[in-house]
Design goal:
Blueprint lengths: L2 E5 L6 E11 L10 E5 L2 E6 L2 E10 L5 E2 H7 L7 E2 L1
Antiparallel strand pairs: 1-2, 1-7, 2-5, 3-4, 4-5, 5-6
Length: 83
Amino acid sequence: GPFSELHQLGRPVQRLQILKVRVVDSDAAGQPGDVLAVDPAEITVRCGEQAIQILQLQPDGKRPMPAADFLRGRKLVRGDRFE
């Protein structure tokens, strides 16, 4: 399946498999891969002209989980990047 690497300032790169997303319209500025928004249940990431909300993912060596569970263990902020 599709995977990405999460890059955060001051933290090691984390490889994630992206399992479930929803395409959303977003006019927020950013480059593809930029985290645009984080709420308790999903992560919004810029993708070309639109954006996706990551709903379910799987970190390397872990079980598949909803984005909400991932966010309880790892804080993301606007400006973090998926590459």
